[in-house]
Design a protein that fits this description.
- It is built from 3 helices and 18 strands.
- It has about 325 residues and is mainly β.
- It folds into 3 domains: about 45 residues, no CATH class; about 90 residues, Sandwich (Immunoglobulin-like); about 180 residues, Immunoglobulin-like, CATH 2.60.40.1190.
- The strands form 3 sheets. Strands 3, 4, 6, 7, 10, 11, 12, 13, 16, 17 and 18 form an 11-stranded mixed sheet that branches.
- The termini are far apart.
Length: about 325
């Protein structure tokens, strides 16, 4: 001990070396929190975090006998998977085909199944659930949005007086209240897509600059509307205008359509008309289906900050670049 004391007090550098050596010897003789078996490290705990072995995507395609909803299963684990795939419409309705078993789905392999919806199932959410043998249930869902075709065109004045009997878009997890209300409606004619929105957000509305974004993805196997080609932006702000359409994959946006806004104390109403000619000449037809998404954003005051997502129709984290995670708009 006298030797250690002499070495310790000799100089600051030697003192640091002495502390380091003693610490190493002590740690080797007496592990601080026991062995690895007793207490796993934070890195091992992170690695042991359970991950889903299967990913589920829901999309759709147009067929001769109407549209088909496609469910894609992808094995993302390192072993083969077997189980049962089934569908459910909420809050009501049923899917036409029975549960389908699958087996031997290899790592990174995808399995695509198609199902038809019964007539009248035009709104709600379609859930696809895969029960893997001996494991928990894995599910995903997609929204269904009715878009009627009508002969008459509404007067675009922001009053929404002609929209009383048009179906409303149902937002998952959003319950209307006195302070919070979001209503979105759509209809087609042979010439245009019409959009109506009524936003009420209480006292916070005075601080917000809200924008409405619509994503459109046309029928599969068509060249004029590809995967997420169109994004319609509408702002209830005079200097922003309303009804500008930006085309995915290009670096510019062009002014298109017309719109009207009625600003209220606790929110606003707005209408927009987007001509069919701005959508590559594509015309909707009955019993057709398009990919569709809606996002209500709060625009930032700084150009360096992206818009803040307030609500989404289907909860997608990437509203324009992943149509597989969008909803389906059913035209009838």
């Amino acid at each position: 001990m006298r030797l250690f004391g002499h070495y310790y007090h000799k100089s600051p550098a030697r003192r640091l070396v002495f502390i380091f050596v003693i610490s190493v010897l002590f740690a080797a003789a007496f592990p601080l929190f026991g062995s690895d078996a007793d207490a796993p490290s934070s890195s091992s705990a992170f690695m042991n975090k359970p991950l889903l072995p299967l990913e589920i995507f829901i999309t759709g395609r147009q067929a001769e006998d109407g549209f088909k909803v496609e469910t894609i299963l992808k094995n993302v684990c390192e072993r083969s998977l077997s189980g049962v795939l089934q569908w459910q419409l909420r809050p009501r309705g049923r899917v036409e085909i029975p549960p389908q078993p699958f087996s031997g789905l290899m790592p990174n392999e995808e399995l695509t199944t198609s199902s038809s919806l019964l007539a009248g199932n035009r709104e709600g959410r379609l859930f696809a659930a895969a029960e893997i043998s001996g494991e928990r249930l894995i599910e995903n869902s997609i929204g269904l949005m009715p878009m009627p075709i009508r002969m008459a065109s509404p007067k675009v004045d922001g009053c929404l007086s002609e929209w009383m009997d048009v179906p409303e878009l149902k937002l998952a997890g959003i319950e209307p209240s006195d302070e919070l209300f979001h209503q979105f409606q759509f209809w087609w004619t042979d010439d245009a897509l019409y959009v109506a929105a009524h936003i009420r957000d209480g006292a916070a509305q005075a601080r917000r600059r809200l924008g409405l974004y619509l994503g459109l993805d046309g029928p599969s196997r068509r060249q004029i509307m590809g995967a997420g080609d169109f994004c319609i932006e509408m702002y209830p702000i005079a200097e922003k205008g309303i009804g500008s359409i930006s085309i995915s994959g290009n670096d510019f946006a062009r002014k298109a359509g017309s719109g009207a806004i009625k600003i209220q104390e606790d929110g606003f109403t707005m209408e927009a008309q987007i001509p069919i000619g701005e959508l590559g000449g594509w015309k909707p037809r009955r019993n057709c289906m398009i990919g569709f998404n809606l996002v209500l954003d709060e625009e930032s005051d700084s150009a360096m900050c992206p818009p803040r997502k307030i609500l989404r129709w289907n909860g997608s984290s990437d509203e324009y670049n992943q149509p597989l995670r969008w909803g389906l708009a059913i035209i009838y």
